[in-house]
Write a structure and sequence with these properties.
The complex is a heterodimer of chains A (244) and B (751). Chain A is an alpha+beta fold and 244 residues long. Chain A has six helices and 13 strands. In chain A, β4, α2 and β5 form a beta-alpha-beta unit. Chain A is elongated and about 70 Å long. Among the domains of chain B are: 222 residues, Rossmann fold; 286 residues, pyruvate-formate lyase- activating enzyme, CATH 3.80.30. In chain B, α3 crosses α6, α14 runs parallel beside α15 and α17 crosses α18. The longest helix of chain B is centred in the last third of the chain and has 21 residues. Chain B is globular. The chains are: A alpha+beta (244), B alpha/beta (751). At the A-B interface, α1, β2 and α6 of A face α9 of B.
């Protein structure tokens, strides 16, 4: 996936920062890995931009910035406007990847990997709503859910119940059939959908199509979790990094 | 087999707030796990030695880490429950919904979804001729194949034809497809293979033959050409193996020899008319007869093969006595198709950019086709003559346009010997100076000559990643190299190696063949000698300098001077490998790798085999023998048992020297080379006489140009810089090497 992104960004000649060393690579920072075979509606990527390039929210602002830079006699920096850039990246990425929003973020913020506290997942199965509801009830009623998993080559048994933050049956208007919707914790170690499915009381033959819908970050203790950026409403701040 | 959700390996996270919306027939999983095998280790060398099946890994066919249980053999004698192709008039329907359900259950599902940048989704229509170009190996190996991509584009540019692509499904997916009755499908629109007009295979290795049969069966098409009816697809194949396709004669309706660019159009015309005429029952034979008169097309069922009454030479097998066309309008000799001018065919214009990792994962630009260096073991160099260079300006624009469109940061300049390209210097400079990607473009030069010029060139382009450099001296002694006409002097090799280490490379990889004509143990051990000397040179510059030696067993190929040579037995090759292994035990800094002699034997039987091997291929396939070029699937016993059951002899096909007057199984095919030229070259080989490269010296009438009324297209009238290197120009002195090298490092330990 990293290669797909590198190629896409090179196609439009986006001024991305390169790593040092003999084999310079584009500086991209990915969030929590999405397991093979799963869909997602909520993925995030940090892109380090060439330090000489400045960002603007839209074309008009970019023009204004360029004009003021010229007035003050500063060296004319390249200004990138986020709205045009979003469309350009969206065009360059393969079918199936839609770039919904771009925003500038502060480099000092935690990396996506560290910052995301939980993810929401949808599971599409062939089970009917009452069967799914029984699974939800049993799971939520359990005091503990033990799962054998391997960690650094060592087998251990973990209680994953505390990592199931929310679980319910939902009907989406745009798809057929009921879906199991779960919010699974990611800190200190992410509970993967496959592990979750293995731990709950799902009929063994049942396979599920899995969709990640959200990645949540608790920015301040006590406040509700938010997503890293809200699609369609890019924000800007005067910093060097921006996230897609 | 992977269980659902026990997904091995996770992808790097997909970026962006994204949703997987990709149209109706769109794949829903989009991220591929990181590769677990070393994909580069799977590379086949495109260059000088078509005889190496693979280069890496100790004693392997295809090295590949075992990551899963190997599915056991499948019983293919049971009736297939595959869907039968419906009538030809039906509109194709995508199988995506059925396929999507099983993809989460298989390894690397991204290789079955298509969606590459450059993919085409043409509209099918009853009047259009539909081609399914199929590579009979995995997607990772097949996707980068340039021949397939070129034809895919050329067909899709036509108004009267469409093309899609398919690759051999890995065993886990095949098992599910058979269980659920899903036929072979295209990756572009997931159309059922059996409903295309043509299943067109690329044959570049003998050990993929059973995969071809498997793909035809998975398509729901009878595997034997004789059992197919008017509504079935035509099964065809192109690629280097079609210069002796006889072992596949029972299974393939027609073969195509030579350059495919023009001939696919001629074939499309014939088939379009046939479709328009109603494709009547019983018309298939008439169609094939008509196709047999298209230049480059070979229809095996149009020829009668007869055999001598008695076995010859004290063996058990009767030699071929004659190969005769069945009808007067069928040509006695099938000529290969040859393009006169590569400049007219700047393809692929939209090279496919895969979503998942494949071999040769970079932009490829073909700089010339054909090679006249005249290495006698090299089939590619014999059958692709004459040399046709692409104009340097066109190469430059293909590089620039290609990089911009694909987003790749690496371009490979492909040919059989890229340093021989007249415009090499300016093309490389142009690529490096490009403003694309702020000049961060790396250029790969596969198939390098062994000389300092080449290293100088490599030093210019490999600004980073100076890890390994590969040369192919092919044989251990000068005498042996004269026999095979690969005229590299030891000084050339040492000069190249010295330049490489002094320029910062730490590892040099050397390719060799063993089992060559007239080879003695002195020649074999000469390989070890050369390697040790190279290590010693390397140690002057870097204490950790190392040399990797990769040795393959030689398989004689049709249309080479060595086509009459009896290859070494499995035991003899193993003995030579052991000889080298023991000799290398006392050498530090040398890594020794070899190709499995068992696989070399099977390749040898098929390479120069005849139609009597058809039942052997069928039996091996019925017993589950697919992916035979993969070490975890290769099964020698499967082959040898089938040979025995068919009453055939490995000695006859592989180990026996042929007589000059023997009717070879490919006697009725032509690569343009005169048979007496090849015979003379074979005699010269035995006399240890080298032959010059005719690009820069007078013609010796091999037949490739004169027979077709075409000429070499070479921009430079003088041979390239760089020593003796096969040009044969100045063997006495080797000449000065006009090369600019980067500042040389001081040897370790010198003041």
């Amino acid at each position: 996936m990293a290669r797909v992104w590198e190629r896409s960004l090179r196609r439009i000649n986006l001024p991305v920062a390169y790593s040092e060393g003999f084999n310079p690579r584009l500086k991209l920072h990915f969030g929590l890995a999405l397991p093979t075979g799963f869909e997602s509606e909520g993925e995030f990527l940090d892109i380090d931009i060439d330090p000489d390039v400045r960002l603007a929210a839209n074309a008009a602002e970019a023009e204004a910035q360029a004009a003021s830079a010229q007035e003050s006699g500063a060296t004319t920096a390249r200004v990138l406007d986020l709205e045009t850039t979003r469309r350009a990246i969206d065009t360059a990425t393969p079918d199936g990847i839609t770039v919904q929003a771009l925003a500038e973020i502060n480099r000092k913020e935690l990396s996506l990997q560290q910052a995301v506290t939980s993810c929401s997942w949808e599971f599409a199965t062939t089970l009917d709503a009452p069967s799914l509801q029984r699974i939800v009830d049993t799971t939520l009623a359990a005091d503990s859910l033990l799962l054998d998993r391997e960690r650094k080559g060592k087998k251990m048994t973990d209680d994953i119940r505390p990592q199931i933050l929310d679980l319910q049956v939902q009907h989406r208007t745009d798809v057929d059939g009921p879906r199991l919707v779960a919010e699974l914790g990611t800190q200190p170690r992410a509970l993967r959908p496959a592990e979750f499915l293995a731990a709950i009381d799902m009929p063994s033959k049942e396979t599920a199509r899995v969709l990640r819908t959200h990645q949540w970050i608790i920015y301040n203790e006590g406040e509700p979790a938010r997503e890293p950026l809200v699609a369609g409403a890019p924000t800007t701040a005067n910093t060097e990094v921006f996230a897609v | 087999m992977s269980e659902p959700f026990s997904v091995a390996g996770e992808s790097a996270g997909v970026g962006a707030v994204m949703s997987a919306i990709c149209g109706e027939a769109a794949p829903h999983e989009r991220s591929e796990s990181q590769p677990r095998g070393q994909a580069e280790g799977l590379l086949r060398r495109s260059a000088d030695s078509a005889v190496h099946a693979s280069d890496d890994g100790e004693s392997t066919t295809h090295p590949r880490p075992k990551t899963r249980d190997t599915p056991t053999t499948q019983d293919r004698t049971a009736p297939s429950n595959l869907q039968r192709p419906s009538t030809i008039a039906s509109i194709m329907k995508s199988l995506w919904n059925q396929i999507e359900d099983i993809l989460p259950l298989v390894e690397k599902p991204a290789r079955y979804i298509g969606c590459e940048d450059g993919m085409q989704q043409p509209d099918h229509a009853p009047h259009k001729v539909s081609w399914l170009f199929t590579y009979p190996d995995t997607y990772e190996i097949g996707l980068p194949n340039q021949g397939l991509q070129i034809l895919y584009e050329i067909i899709n540019e036509r108004d009267d034809a469409v093309a899609e692509r398919s690759y051999a499904p890995w065993a886990d997916l095949e098992a599910l497809m058979r269980e659920k009755g899903i036929p072979l499908f295209s990756v572009d629109q997931h159309m059922p293979a059996g409903e295309f007009d043509l299943l067109a295979f690329n044959l570049s290795a003998e050990l993929t033959y059973t995969n071809l049969i498997n793909c035809v069966d998975l398509a729901g098409v009878p595997i034997r050409a004789a059992d197919r009816e008017a509504h079935h697809p035509l099964v065809t194949a192109g690629g280097h193996c079609t210069y002796n396709p006889e072992p596949l004669a029972d299974f393939v309706d027609f073969f195509v020899l030579g350059d495919g660019e023009e001939v696919v159009g001629d074939i499309t015309d014939v088939i379009r008319e046939w479709k328009a005429s109603g494709r009547a029952e019983g018309s298939r034979e008439d169609l094939l007869r008509k196709l047999s008169s298209v230049t480059g097309v070979y229809v095996p069922s149009m020829y009668e093969i007869s055999y001598d009454a008695e076995p010859a030479d004290g063996g058990t097998m009767r030699p071929i006595s004659a190969i005769v066309p069945k009808y007067s309008d069928v040509p006695e000799e099938v000529e290969k198709a040859t393009l006169a001018d590569l400049a007219e065919w700047p393809y692929p214009k939209n090279q496919l950019v895969p979503l998942t990792e494949v071999v040769h994962d970079r932009l490829n630009v073909e700089v010339f086709r054909g090679c006249t260096r005249g290495c006698r073991f090299c089939q590619a160099g014999m059958i692709t003559r004459p040399v046709r260079e692409r104009p340097a300006e066109q190469v430059k624009s293909m590089i620039q346009d290609g990089l911009r469109r694909t987003g790749y940061d690496e371009v490979s300049l492909t040919s059989l010997s890229t340093a021989d390209f007249s415009g090499i210097q300016s093309v490389v400079e142009d690529a490096m100076d490009s403003d694309y990607n702020e000049g961060r473009v790396s250029v790969a030069l596969p198939s390098l000559r062994v000389d300092a010029f080449t290293v100088g060139l490599s030093a210019q382009i490999q600004n980073a990643r100076r890890t390994g450099l590969t040369f192919a001296p092919e044989a251990g002694t000068w005498r042996m190299r004269q026999v095979i006409n690969k005229l590299i002097r030891e000084e050339d090799l040492y000069g190249a190696v010295e330049s490489a280490y002094s320029q910062g490379w730490r590892r040099v990889k050397l390719y060799f063949l063993t089992g060559l004509p007239t080879e003695t143990d002195v020649d074999t051990l000469g390989i070890a000698e050369l390697a040790r000397n190279c290590v010693a040179i390397g140690k002057k510059y870097n204490k950790s300098a190392s040399v990797t030696v990769s040795v393959g067993g030689f398989v004689p190929k049709p249309f080479t001077p060595f086509q009459w040579f009896g290859q070494n037995t499995e035991e003899e090759l193993q003995r030579k490998m052991n000889l080298l292994r023991d000799d290398f035990r006392k050498s530090h800094g040398v890594q020794f790798k070899w190709h499995d002699p068992k696989a070399t034997l099977i390749e040898g039987m098929l390479s120069r085999g005849d139609r009597r091997l058809g039942p052997v291929l069928e039996e091996v396939w019925r017993n589950g023998g697919v992916f035979q070029e993969w070490s975890e699937f290769f099964d020698r016993d499967l082959w040898m048992n089938a040979m025995e059951n068919a009453g055939l002899s490995a000695e006859y096909y592989a180990f026996r020297h042929r007589h000059e007057d023997e009717v070879l199984p490919w006697e009725h095919l032509s690569a343009g080379l005169h048979k007496d030229f090849l015979w003379q070259d074979w005699r010269d080989a035995l006399d240890e006489v080298g032959l010059e490269d005719c690009r820069w010296t007078p013609c010796y009438d091999c037949g490739a140009c004169t027979g077709y009324g075409i000429e070499h297209v070479v921009a430079s009238a003088t041979p390239p810089a760089g020593g003796s290197q096969g040009t044969g120009q100045d063997l006495a002195s080797g000449g000065a090497v006009p090369v600019t090298l980067l500042p040389t490092r001081t040897p370790v330990g010198s003041a």
